[in-house]
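Notes from the 1:1 (GR / supervisor)

We went over the backlog. Supervisor wanted to see one worked example end to end before approving the batch request, so GR pasted a single chain during the call. The sequence is below; no edits were made to it. Supervisor asked that the structure be written out right there so they could see what the output format looks like.
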Amino acid sequence: MLLEQMFELETIGLDQMSVKFLSDGLGSQAGEKFDYIKFRKAIKALKGMNMDMTTAIQSTLTTASTMGVQSSDIYQSASKFLDLIDSEEHKFNVALQRQSVNKIDEKKIALDESKQKILEIKNKLIELQNDISKEENLQLILQSEIEKNQTMIQDKKQLFHESIQKIKLLVQEDLNSLK
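Structure output shown during the call:
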């Protein structure tokens, strides 16, 4: 990765995914000329040969000057590199915002919709429970009326049969007397 070639990242404990994302974005910016990227790679290589930082910088600048590159050129290149990092940060933030919308905001909307649906179902359930209670009360009233009417009909039947029996008895008495 580009940034690992330029800096000793292993000593400062960076997130590897972030470094890869940034390196991939910046990697396409490396040019042919001796620029900040080549400057940092050269310094890292010299430090890898146990050279102190000051000597590595001076040696790299001396080599660069033989190619017609001044420290001001490297400074400008480093400033552009910093601008590129800012640009990559912006791209990352835009992508992160899209993911936030996809993975968080849309899920929040779905969660709110689910809560609303549960509330509607609970309200329907309360309504159904009220309907059940009304029907159960109606059943009790109807059962009571059935029992009352059965008793009334049974009583009328009994009274009617008793009346018939008495009238029959009277007629039978008359029949007996007429014989």
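Supervisor's comment: The CA atoms of residues 147 and 179 lie 47 Å apart.
Batch request approved.
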